[in-house]
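## retry 2 of 3
previous attempt timed out at serialization; input unchanged, resubmitting
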Amino acid sequence: MRGIILAVLLVLSAAAASAQQLPMVELTAGFHRIEAEVAANNAARMQGLMQRKSMPAQRGMLFVFERDAQHCMWMKNTFLPLSVAFLDAQGRILNIEDMQPHSEDNHCAAQPARYALEMNAGWFAQRGIKRGDRIGGIERAPRAF
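## retry succeeded, writing output
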């Protein structure tokens, strides 16, 4: 009986984990490859990278918004220091902001943005990626819903 209960719990746990998995898209910044989880709906955008303790160097999260606007990000319940690049509909970087863990400070797009790409803190600066550069592959990202 105990084995059956354990097996059921494992199946339910695996189902819950897979239900929360986000789609992935491969992006590029110059010759750098990015594996981005895609937050394309309101629930995924609200959750973002909250509660994560680590993230591989080439991994990030792409937030896809329904329309261009001066979107803002914050770090409530986020343990990782992050940098966020706000992007226009063509993937051009509008501005990059560094964000500190557990801060409720708003970090906003300098101009109307369609996307935000969060990476580990300093990722863009360490690779010489700056305002005006283009993130490739953005057209493969799922649309916001």
